[in-house]
Every structure is written in structure tokens, then in C-alpha cells.
Amino acid sequence: MRNYVAKRIFAAVPLFFIISFCSFVLINLSPTDPAVAALRANDVPVITEELVEQTRAQLGLDQPLLIRYGKWLSGCLQLNFGQSYVKKISVSSLILPAFLNTLKLVTVTSVTIILLSTIFGVFCALREGSKADKGIRGILFVFTSMPSYWIGPLMIWFFAVQLNILPTSGIGNASHYILPVIVMSFSYIGFYFRLIRNSMIRNSGENYVLYEKASGLPDRLVNRHILRNSLQTAISGFCMAIPGMLAGTVVVENVFAWPGIGRLCVSAIFDRDLPVIQAYIIIVAAFFILFNLIADLISAAINPKQREG
Amino acid sequence: MKIVLQVSGLNIWDSRNEETIVKNVSFSLKENSCLALVGESGSGKSMTCKAIMGLTRPWIRCSGRVEFNGHELLTLPKQQLRRLCGSRLCMILQDGMSAFDPSCVIGQHFRETLREHFGWTVQQADERMVESMLTVRLKNPTEFLKKYPHQLSGGMLQRAMIALALVLEPEIIIADEPTTSLDTITQFEVMEQFAALQKRTSSAIIFVSHDLGVVNRLADTVVVMKNGSVVEFGSLPEVFEQPQKEYTRYLVSSRQALGMRFRQVLGGNEPC
Questions:
Q1: Which of A203, A294, B140, B163 could form a cystine bridge with B132, CB 3.0-4.6 A?
Q2: Are A255 and A191 found together in one domain?
């Protein structure tokens, strides 16, 4: 196991460098000249050739690509992502608080999704084909199909306006989490609960379950073995969903005015604020790599075959 | 001899499509004897065994009577039947490789089973298992307990199941094609262990097989099944030497023909 962990961590490092280089090059290949973008962002009325040259030198854009990449990367590793073109303050002071807000929302949502999908998944698998199973599957299917930009405002209208029991938007105490967390989890629970349910039903027909029952093990123990073997697909899938949520909560953040990274990034894209966009990409990429690693380690802990491979 | 298991008029059907799987099966198992269930695949042998132990899937329904030492197994409450499974009725499966939870070490299954039936601690369970595994000629049993199923071979796992049965000392052992997925040499070794198991314990054995050579070596009584029904039921010499039914004659003669061919190839005169 120790070897496997070392191997996986070691493999993650070059992956990070490759992704950071690709994202840097791709952003620089975009047709917008960063210097022009920076000038536009500051509402400079007439953009002359001379002014562009000057800005380019000022922003260090006249240096070769590799040197710029090196400087940027070493800055990133110290959480220094450069200056925002638009807001004229350091990108980290913009992006880190926003990122923390998103992280809080995603953490609460993830715990909710894991708990509810496991509970519903196990419940339905043990009662396969019953009315309860069919009912839960139907209801969750309906919720999963509702787009968050629609169900979000609907819930605000009902819970915050009509019943006036929850805040409409913004970030504050625990009650601010309830609506965005519900809306975000809806789209995931329907999916992961099904993965767990189907995988448990498939596993319960396996020979080892037959032998455990034939050996007289109580249902509680047999079901624990079934669940342990069924969680694997759901875990790998879910570990990839967490960074996905970190990167793509734009809709929910906008609906609930949550000052998170998704909103920040969308406004940065409109303003062509390249340092912010780059910082966003590198942070999200780093989290994808991190969660990929976590998924591998968890499934290795569950599945002894993977440890050796 | 006392009868330990009496199956009478057992019917099994699939409630989803009302398809009959086993029809009116009756046989009896005497104390300390070995009964072989013989027939081609799909003849309902395995399903009969599963139904006896109440291990069929929820949509499979059974009717008839299965009497085991005064208990009527088909109508016994689930909890009580579960307590009988393992301690008094034991099963050995066909494929050792898939019979153990792939995410746990082998020892875990033994510990959980023995704790459930005898309330033994991990140490007690391991001690008894190590002892028993040595008698079925498994090397390094202490190491064996720490291995995962995929690190072991089918034959070894098969013997581990026999070792567990030895510790549990049940009244009936149901072995569902225990030698089918093994190569010839391992098959022979496992067979030897079954013969020894019969001697060592007073358990009665139900041995499911389509290999008549294996049956010839172990069984006292034979039940021949075809398409879910019993074709013939009698003692081994009766069924093998004076088969009454066309199908049994066909089974026995095809086996003999194979044996003849085998002898020709080897050039020997040993009866097969």
C-alpha cells in the first residue's frame, strides 16, 4: 500500500506541470492581446500602438513565453498569481476569499450528497422492486431533471418570499446554506444514489454473498460486505464530481448571490482579466489532480487488487 | 440408519415468469452417508440445494416439504433458518475464487462465521482454523488467513471451505459441484479431502456433480435429475449397474465410452 501511495503522488507532480503549461499556452494563444485587454479594462479612450508597447513592457509581456511561464508558475506556487488588470489589486486577494466561499458551499453539499445517496441507495437496494423503491427512484429522477436555474428561483420564491423562513441570498449564517445546498445536491443525488443502488443489487447476486448467507452470517454483516464492494464506482465518480462542483457552481452562485469563485471567474472572462482566469484554471486543475489522487487512494484501500496494479 | 433430511414433492418456480425450475423432487438423505445429485447443467441440481438452505433469490418460490431433524425448512422463520445455516447445514461452493468477499482477507469470513455461531474471539477462531487447514493440507495457514481471494488459487480456496466445514461440524454438508472448476490434479486432492471429511465427521453429504467418476468414488446413493425432475433415485450400485431409465443408461454409457477412449489413448487396462 505504501508503495502505491508513493507512486500515485509521484505521478501527480508531472501531471500538474503539464496542465499548468497547457493552460498558460492556451490562454496566450487567444486572439486577444493581453496588453490591449488591460488598456480596455481601464477605459483608456484611444489605444495607440505606442501605448500598447508601453503596457506590454510594463506587464512583462515582451519577454519570451517560457520565461513568462516560469515566472508565473513560481509565483503560483507561492500563491502569488500576479495583478488583476481590472481591479489593480493582487489576484490572490481576489480569488482566495472567493474560493474559500465556494469551498465551504461545496463541502456542505458534498457531505449532503454522500449521506443522502448512500442512505437512499442502500434503502432502495434492500427493497428492490417494492413501492418504496419505485417511489424514491421516481421522485429523485424528477428532482435530478430540474435545472438549477429554474428550481433555484422557485425555491427562493417559496421558502424565502412566501413562507419567509429562509434568507433569499448571500452568505452569512447556517441558514444561508440550506437553499443553495439543496439545489446543488438535487442534481447529484439522483445520479449517485442510482449508482450505489444498482451496484448493490448486482453485488447481492454474487457468489460471495451466497456463501456468506450459507455460512449463516446475519443480514447486517452481509449487507455491510455488499455495500463495501458496491461503493467503489460511486467513490471514483464522486471524487471527480467535487472538483467539478468547485469549478462549475456559476449558476447556483449567481442565483443565490453567493460570492464564490464561479461568479468571479465569469466576470473575469467578460473583462478579459487574464491573470484571474489563469489563476482560476490552475486552482481548479490542482483540485482535479488532488481529488483524482484521493479517489485512487480510497479505492485502493477498498480494493486490494488495485493496490498491486 | 436415521434419515436426516427428507425432501418430498419439492417444486421451485420463478414468480416473475411462472416458469417451473424444479418439479416434484423427492429424496432422502441418511445419517453419515453421501448422496450424489447428478444431471446435466440446468437440470435444477443447484437450485434444489439452494432451496433446501433457503438461499434462493426473492422472486424464486418453493412448495413441498423439506424436513431436517424435525424442522420444516421451507416454512421455518428466516432468523431460525439462518441460525441453522452454517452451524448445522453447511455449503461448499463450486468456484472458490468468487466465494469470498474480494475486498476482505480470507480470515475475515472465518472469524465472522465462527463468532456468529460459537461466539469465538478472533484468536480462538484463527487457532481452530489453522489447525483445521493443516488437516486439509494447506501450507502456511497463518499466512493464508491474511491473503485476499485473488492471491490464492481455486483449489486452495476450495480446501479452505472444507476446512471451515470441518470446524463447524454440521450435520449436513451440501457441496455444489466442488470439483468442476478445478484442474484434474487439484480435483483429485479435493476429492481426497471430501473422502477424509466423510470419515472424520459424522456429517451427511449432498454432493452435486455431473462427473460420474467423482460420484462413483464418494457416493452411497444417487439422485439423477433431468429438466427439473428426478429421473432415478437409488443406491450407487443400483443406479450405475442396473439403470432403470433410458436417460440414466445414456449418462452411464457416455461416461463409459469416455473412459474407453481414455484407456485407448493411455494404452492401459486400468478400469476407469
A1: B163
A2: yes
A233 is a domain residue:
yes
Helix axis angle for A175-204 and A148-155, nearest 10°, is 130
β-pair partners for A251? none
Interface test mutation site (partner A, options B101, B120, B150, max chain A beta carbons within 10 A): B101
Q: Is residue A84 part of a domain?
A: no
CATH number of the structural domain spanning residue A275: 1.10.3720.10
Please indicate if any CB of chain B lies within 8 Å of the CB of A210.
yes
Per residue in A223-278, pLDDT (tens digit) is: 999 999 998 888 888 888 888 888 868 888 888 888 888 888 888 888 888 888 88
| Residues A139, A252 within the same domain | yes
* Facing A211 at nearest CB: one of B57, B82, B93: B93
For residue A36, what are the CA distances in angstroms to A44, A82, B15?
10, 17, 74
Closest-CA residue of chain B to A211 = B99
Contact at 8 Å (CB) between B101 and A225? yes
Q: Which domain holds residue A66?
A: 2-77
pTM to 2 decimal places: 0.82
Task: Tell me which chain B residue has its CA closest to the CA of residue A221.
Answer: B112
**pLDDT (mean) for B188-210:** 82
Cα B163 from Cα B147, distance rounded (Å): 16
Shared-domain flag, residues A182 and A277? yes
Is A258 a domain residue?
A: yes
The answer to whether B12 and B56 have CB atoms below 8 angstroms apart is yes
Chain A residue with Cα closest to B168:
A215
- The CA distance from A205 to the nearest CA of chain B, in Å, is 8
Query: A305: nearest CA in chain B?
Result: B150
Are A301 and A172 part of one and the same domain?
Answer: yes
Question: Same domain, yes or no, for A34 and A114?
Answer: no
My answer on whether A51 and A114 are in the same domain is no
Based on the structure, what is the number of domains in chain A? 2
Evaluate whether B202 touches B4 at the Cβ level (below 8 Å): no
Instruction: Transcribe B201-231 into DSSP letters.
Output: S--EEEEEES-HHHHHHH-SEEEEEETTEEE
Are A104 and A222 in the same domain? yes
Q: pLDDT tens across B181-191, in order? A: 777 777 777 78
CA–CA distance, A204 with A122 (Å, rounded to integer)? 12
- Say whether both A11 and A115 belong to one domain: no
B chain contacts of residue A303, beta-carbon cutoff 8 Å: 102-103
Mutant choice from A133, A202, A204, A215 vs B, greatest count of B C-beta within 10 A = A215
Q: Which of B93, B112, B161 sits opposite A217 (nearest CB)?
A: B112
Nearest to B101 among A213, A216, A229 (CB): A229
Would you state the cell numbers that stand for residue A291, as one nine-digit string? Answer: 481529488
Cell numbers at residue A268, please?
473575469
Say how many CB pairs under 8 Å bridge A and B: 80
Domain contains A227: yes
pLDDT of residue A131: 93
